[in-house]
Amino acid sequence: MHMSQEYSGSGDPAKSLELLWGLQAKPTRGPKPALTVDKVVAAALRIADAEGLAAMSIRRVADELGVGAMTLYRYVPGKGELIDVMLDTAYGELPLREVPGDWRAKLDAVAREIREMYLKHPWLLQVAVSRPPLGPGVMAKYEHELHAVNGIGLSDVEMDAAVALVNGYVHGAVRSAVEAAQVIRTSGISDKEWWLAHEPLLDKIGDTKKYPLASRVGTTVGHEFDAPYDSDHGFEFGLARVLDGIATLLHGR
Amino acid sequence: MHMSQEYSGSGDPAKSLELLWGLQAKPTRGPKPALTVDKVVAAALRIADAEGLAAMSIRRVADELGVGAMTLYRYVPGKGELIDVMLDTAYGELPLREVPGDWRAKLDAVAREIREMYLKHPWLLQVAVSRPPLGPGVMAKYEHELHAVNGIGLSDVEMDAAVALVNGYVHGAVRSAVEAAQVIRTSGISDKEWWLAHEPLLDKIGDTKKYPLASRVGTTVGHEFDAPYDSDHGFEFGLARVLDGIATLLHGR
DNA sequence: CCTAACTGAGTACGCTGTACGAGGTAACTG
DNA sequence: CAGTTACCTCGTACAGCGTACTCAGTTAGG
What we know:
The structure is a homodimer. Chain A is mostly helical. In chain A, 65% of the residues lie in helices and 4% in strands.
């Protein structure tokens, strides 16, 4: 089972920025627009949250709003920019709580907030951001994250790297968990059932001889793994390791 | 700029396994097949490596092989299963070097090998695997990874978690780097140019007041960042943190 | 009022994966 | 050897996608 990812051309990044900061010139003549950018984005978010990013097509959003497909292009330059705005909007919903304590407590809280965000908007996991659209939501999130590691002896570049590391970790961890849950929902086969179903076939192939560790560990994990409990556990394990790693760096100074 | 990822239904996982282990019954009657599964997979890999997963359509692969589109369905049940086999094939190309030294040296080598694999087959970054097709390549890779952390005092479940942590880290790190390079290639705008282009706009919005850390660190990173040099550096930084984290866990015992 | 500006939406193009079925070929069977 | 059966190839078709183009209808400024 797998997901495949595709490039989705985001048009002019400048257009995304105009949308995000509300910099479009207001029209003076002509009929009142029936919609607003916010309404389009809200409808798109509703669909993506409920049915995934694949279901969020231009035609589908237009149907949701009761207008023709091409009407949306009056409000949004294209699908790419729409996703940009959706992303910034989702980022903007982060609580960004002020947490007492040291950097570790703060960074731990940041990781958990981001995790919650991904669980609420799983489609975000499918939108990869190298140069994110610098909207208000993205900026506030970045600022909040940097605040957690500010003044603890890291250089600017290291601060950015540390924050990126935590973000990357959470992204990967939640994606695994969400995918696993998705697979179970769509296939109706639990992890245990899946392992049990494949054990005989793998035995036939002779994997216990060729791949002794893989079959031992795989079988153990397959038997002991309880998706909801252990996805939490796995998250904790990895996050602790990542934060330990940053702590080691700090103590070495 | 962003990439969007979509679910790609992989048909019957059982069919993927049959393909991967060559378990299909050989036909006795009828004309000789003009192609083989291997040839189809090789052509698909060629296209995906060179032009990305989005370009790897059934029709495109068929063209590459000089046959009609529907001919491919004689060899592969569908696109999902084809990607499964491509993935296992790519995993199977890993060198899986035996490295002298302790677990850290071995795990470090594993991480670097996986990194090379992703750089050679960037489309792998777009294929998310929750329940990977358990072909020979996947099994050998898993076995090799577990070998690095075997006998150092981790439970089976912890071994799996540690290996997953490293895999997740490398995946995230390489993806960021590849995306960044891709954005530069397609847009023709370097990171520095991008930051410089956006600085005035962000100043206008007042980000230096609202987002003091983000604008300071962002500007520093934007100015100091040299893509090829610093993507290596960022990888080293994160990998060291992750391995430090595992080391801390081990020392605590 | 007239006209320029603007909104809404139908149609169409090229792309996707793949279901269906027709027509050709090779080997086993009587 | 003829008949049958299994198999290979591939043209056509369908539903879906993003979106370019075009034209009719609406509104406000001069």
